[in-house]
Design brief:
The complex is a heterodimer of chains A (about 160) and B (about 450). Chain A is built from 7 helices and 5 strands, in the order E-H-E-H-H-H-E-H-E-H-E-H. Chain A starts with a strand and ends with a helix. Helix content of chain A is about 35%, strand content about 20%. Chain A has a 5-stranded parallel beta sheet with strand order 3-2-1-4-5, sandwiched between helices. Chain A is globular and about 45 Å long. The longest helix of chain A is centred in the middle third of the chain and has 13 residues. The model of chain A has no long low-confidence stretch (mean pLDDT about 80). In chain B, helix 1 runs antiparallel to helix 5. Chain B contains 10 helices and 11 strands. The chains are: A alpha/beta (about 160), B alpha+beta (about 450). Chains A and B meet through helix 4 and helix 7 of A and strand 8, strand 9, strand 10 and strand 11 of B.
């Protein structure tokens, strides 16, 4: 069976380093699901008519997409698919459902990285990941000091 | 035709057609209703009259007679005809007498009622079952309402339509004038701007509408124009300065040497000095020529497929052969698996010049500390990132780095004329690429280049 790996992201190029490191390590081809967590809105109008994409799309910067594209072509044979998914649930059960629905077999998360909140509704994915019952891999990378490049491709190119 | 007139006419046509459509509708429905109403009245009169005449001995008949005489006003030209209905009867005779078609009678026989209209005279026929047998009752009258009320209505509608058309014509022209006033104003004000008063800007009027957007777009364009004019002026100034400095030195050196008889060694020394400055002069002129060629001549015909990574390697080798202290590290961790993705269309010489410019700058301004170069590609673009840990560029000077001869305030102790970056940008633009520079003083500079992949 092909592996599906879930990697939390905060839509910064920097967070894609987890994926880069993992792809460099893993021998087998994998499907990758990048997960972004937001809190579902309290507003009835938004619940009825809003889509999670509506809130998330503005955050998906061109640079982020380019970085994804670079990783796709770098690991063209090992990276079977790269999808970006939004998780809107509150509970661990909802998270577990998502993992089952997407046939996730492994969770890969960065060690010592604080996810940046892109909007008011952003949620830290780590509590969900910590409580999930699946094999987990911790990936360590050291971001370059964010000196010259602010959310630029260089964040992906030069990690140590 | 002017857009203003077009809009006015369009608005006018739409309004008038709506008004006409409504008027015609009102008129037609009124006619229909008035005919229907009149026939019904005739039919009721038929029933009442027949009852009153034929059944006058009975109680019902006498009541009807009273109603007929006391309450029913005579209609203009009202006539009532009673025709006894016998089996097998043909109505040719009656039809001729009343000048009605035979089918009218046949319809009454079949359906129990019929309607007919001749000019303004309306006929309604019904079958009436009296004590003495079945009768056909035909009531005819002149439709006064049709001839008078409807004519009145028609006149009102005609006058109303005309008035509405005139009004809408006036309003539409006024409106379109009003809409286009700001546009005319902008045209007027923009017309006054020429290269001598490029500082003039259009006054924006606060509101967040299309006109304000147009004005601010114009203003931004003027900003860019003014900047490029300024750059041109600066360019001429800087170029003459750059060219005159070595010339002055050469002239001065020659004059001093010629002042008196000197030894061979001294002549040699001075000639060497003159040669150095002449060489400097030549290299400036050469790079200016390249800059001019890349900036204006769009010679696309000599493009061929080149590998971006190969160009980088070549540039690295060239720089290291010129200055062995250079430390350029190529990071290949994000190289695409498919080398085809690193192919681009371009002029090899120019691209190599651009790459080596960027790399040389990185080496030079970081005192030959390590320079990281990385390359990656998406499906349609190639990305090259060059990162150094040098002196950086002050933030408020970043926008000037593309001006020829501009040199950042903290770069005076480094050699150079300030032609490299503008030249690089010209080359990158020739190849439909992008170049972005971000920097922090004393921390380093990152240059990101991107080019479209070859098909």
């Amino acid at each position: 069976m092909q592996k599906t790996v879930l990697i939390p992201t905060d839509y910064t190029v920097e967070s894609l380093n987890t994926l880069k490191k993992f792809m460099a390590m893993t021998p087998a081809p994998v499907h990758v699901l990048l997960l972004y967590c937001i809190r579902a809105s309290d507003s009835i109008i938004e619940l009825l008519f809003g889509r999670p994409e509506g809130e998330v799309d503005p955050m998906l910067s061109r640079t982020f997409n380019e970085a994804c594209g670079i990783l796709r072509s770098t690991y063209a044979s090992k990276l079977l698919s790269l999808q970006v998914e939004t998780f809107q649930g509150f509970t661990q059960n909802a998270f577990q459902n998502l993992l089952e629905a997407r046939n996730v077999t492994e969770i890969v998360f960065p060690a010592g990285y604080t996810f940046r909140r892109q909007s008011r509704n952003s949620v830290d994915p780590m509590p969900f990941i910590n409580r999930a019952v699946l094999p987990k891999t911790e990936v360590f990378w050291l971001a370059p000091e964010r000196d010259t490049e602010k959310s630029e491709l260089a964040e992906l190119f030069f990690e140590e | 035709m002017r857009t203003q007139t077009k809009i006015a006419l369009g608005f006018f046509v739409v309004t008038v057609s709506v008004v006409i459509l409504m008027s015609v509708g009102v008129y037609l429905f009124s006619i229909n209703y008035s005919f229907e109403d009149f026939y019904k009245r005739l039919e009721i009169r038929g029933v009442v009259s027949a009852g009153a005449i034929l059944d006058h001995e009975e109680a019902r008949g006498s009541v009807l007679q009273e109603v007929r005489e006391m309450h029913l006003e005579k209609l203009p030209d009202e006539n009532v005809h009673l025709i006894p209905l016998k089996p097998g009867q043909t109505f040719g005779q009656e039809a001729a007498r009343l000048s009605l078609p035979v089918s009218f009678f046949e319809e009454i026989g079949r359906l129990g009622h019929a309607r007919h209209k001749y000019k303004n005279t309306f006929f309604a026929g019904i079958k009436y079952a009296a004590k003495s047998g079945d009768y056909i009752v035909i009531v005819s009258a002149d439709n006064y309402y049709n001839s008078h009320h409807l004519a009145y209505l028609r006149n009102i509608i005609l006058v109303g339509t005309l008035c509405a058309s005139a009004l809408s014509l006036a309003v539409s022209f006024l409106l379109s004038r009003l809409v286009f006033t700001p546009v005319r104003e902008i045209t007027h004000r923009v017309n006054r701007i020429n290269f001598q008063n490029l500082h003039i800007r259009l006054a924006t009027h606060g509101a967040d509408d299309e006109i304000t957007k147009l004005e601010s777009t114009f203003n931004k364009m003027l900003d860019r124009l003014a900047t490029s004019f300024e750059t041109q002026n600066n360019f001429i100034g800087s170029a003459s300065h750059e060219l005159s400095t070595p010339l002055t030195t050469i002239i001065g050196e020659a004059e001093v040497t010629l002042n008196q008889e000197r030894s061979v060694a001294e002549y040699k020394e001075s000639l060497r000095s003159i040669l150095t400055h002449a060489e400097r002069l030549e290299s400036i002129t050469k790079s200016l020529l390249v800059l001019a060629r890349t900036g204006f001549g769009k010679e696309k015909n000599e493009y061929d497929r080149v590998r971006a990574d190969q160009l980088l390697w070549d540039a690295k080798q060239m720089i290291e052969s010129i200055n062995p202290r250079s430390n350029i590290q190529l990071n290949l961790s994000l190289m695409p698996e498919n080398p085809e993705m690193l192919c681009m269309l371009g002029n090899e010489t120019l691209l190599q010049l651009a790459f080596s410019n960027v790399l040389t700058n990185a080496c030079k301004f970081s005192d030959f500390r390590a320079v990281m170069v990385s390359i990656g590609a998406t499906n349609d673009r190639i990305f090259i990132v060059v990162k150094d840990t040098g002196i950086g560029i002050p933030e408020n000077e970043l926008k000037f780095i593309w001006d020829p001869f501009y040199r950042a305030s903290n770069s005076k102790s480094f050699e150079g004329y300030g032609i490299g970056l503008p030249l690089t940008r010209n080359i990158v633009r020739l190849h439909n690429g992008d170049i972005t520079v971000s920097s922090r003083v004393m921390r380093g500079t990152t240059v990101q280049l991107s080019f479209p992949t070859a098909g």
